From TrEMBL:
Residues 6-219 form the AIG1-type G domain. Signal peptide: none annotated. It holds the Pfam family AIG1. This is GTPase IMAP family member GIMD1.
Length: 219
């Protein structure tokens, strides 16, 4: 995970079509590695790995500043407009093993839209799919990324008010992952300061696992 003065964290983004998975990955990387645009069908059809440059000023350990690198695996959505569940699952599972098989996965980001209600069936499908990919300890290695947070703010919801009004389905999901969640406005370029805040939150989630990664079996 880390050299003497550098740390790399491995992330995967999961979620439904048009939740903003690829855009969120770009925001985390500070790049435009992943194709992301509005479409009547699923845009992402295969997995791709993006890597950030060295990021300074985010983390210190043992009194020393470390350079941070982010690796994000973008994935096809589930449900997908052109692929079956089995095709998506096998594609993602193979890519996880290929890219993170040696180092392991530090965090899966389950991407949901903050401006749309989470229905029980959607939550059940997302949980089942994530569990099939990551195994029984998926809750320890999963966080929820709530995208389109700007639209929730435009509707008058600050973070506290949003959670107070959220459905029991969403609140139950957040509880199951130990309230690891982040609100993200990925409709515009993230400023350096905003990105630093998000990355520090992710590192805090990873710290809860003592910086341990989820082992992944290679095919």
């Amino acid at each position: 995970m880390a050299h003497s003065n550098e740390m790399t964290i491995n992330l995967v983004v999961l979620g439904r079509t048009q939740t903003g998975k690829s855009a969120a990955g770009n925001s985390l990387l500070g790049s435009s590695d992943f194709e992301s645009h509005c479409s009547p069908s699923s845009v992402t059809t295969c997995c791709s790995l993006g890597r950030s440059c060295r990021i300074l000023g985010i983390i210190r350990r043992n009194g020393c500043e470390l350079a941070l690198r982010i690796q994000v695996l973008d994935t096809p959505s589930y449900p997908h407009s052109g692929l079956s569940k089995e095709q998506v699952r096998d594609t993602v599972r193979s890519a996880l093993a290929r890219h993170f098989g040696e180092e392991g996965l530090h965090l899966a980001l389950l991407v949901l839209r903050a401006d749309l209600p989470l229905c029980p069936d959607e939550s059940d499908h997302a949980i089942q799919f994530t569990q099939e990919l990551l195994g029984r300890t998926w809750k320890d290695f999963t966080a929820v990324l709530l995208t389109h947070a700007d639209k929730a703010e435009e509707a008058g919801f600050c973070e506290e008010a949003y959670l107070h009004s959220a459905s029991s389905t969403l609140l139950s999901l957040l509880t199951s992952v130990q309230n690891k969640y982040i609100f993200l406005d990925n409709q515009k370029s993230m400023r350096k300061e905003e990105r630093a805040i998000v990355l520090r939150k992710l590192l805090n989630f990873i710290r809860q696992n003592n910086y341990q990664a989820l082992p992944l079996l290679k095919d």
